[in-house]
Amino acid sequence: MKGQGNAAQQEQTSVEHIDFSTLADRVEEFRYELDRARDMCEQANLEINKYRVEIHRLKCTLDAERDACSKAHKLLIRESNHNKELENPNKNLQNSLKRETVLNSQLQARLNTETASLKAMTKHARSQEEKLIDTQLDLEYLKCTMSVDPPLAPTLALNNHAPLPAQPFVVVLVDGDAYNWAPDISYNDCPPGTVSASNILDGSGPGAMAATRVRNEVTKFILSQDGTIPVTAKIITRVFCNFSSRPGLMTSFRRSGPVGLGLAEFAVQFTEKLPLFDFFDAGRGKERADDKIRGKTVISPKE
Fold it and tell me: Which UniProt key words apply to this protein (predicted)?
């Protein structure tokens, strides 16, 4: 009893010494710490929930990637099998391509041959066309020069003083000193694929070829005048040249043989080719051919 009394007395003494204001401050501090701990717990719970959501999303993404990888693996296996199946057709196509390449080369070679043949045929056709044109011109000329005039009345035929019937004509005057003849009428200067007078079998020669060309060109001119010049007009050609001043003018012309062709022989061939074609020596002196052409040439009315 005595001990219990001492303990009660001590408790009463300690309670008497406690400061209630200090106790209230401590309680407030404990409450503040408790509230802050609660806030921290709530924030921790929020972070944990966020991490849980992120982990769930990552798991879903991982599952989707696994499914995609599985599908890709299956697709890879299927494509590998398909490639193996296509290897044989690919080899067949390569072999077929090689055969087509060889065939294409053969066809190209044949095409080149046919093209060369076509070019040769075209060249030959052009040559034949030129010959046809020349033949047509010769025919037109023969029609003009060989036309038969109507017979004269008996009284006029017996009258020597009766005027001759009118006959149209075209006169061509050529200055032989001023111009050279085309080189392809010679043998040496004949370009490939052309026809020269020296390789014609009738032996007419370069002079005759020159006369024929002059006649053909004049005939073309007459036909192009739309009837202003009668097609029956005769063609008279006079070539004037100074033989002495140009002795070597025709040395480049050759016959089919090695003998050179002189200017005089060329003139003879030119004159003999057609009855109204003449190649004259204009005489010595400068500009003699010009003098003949400008006013000193006299043409007989009967011509």
Answer: Coiled coil
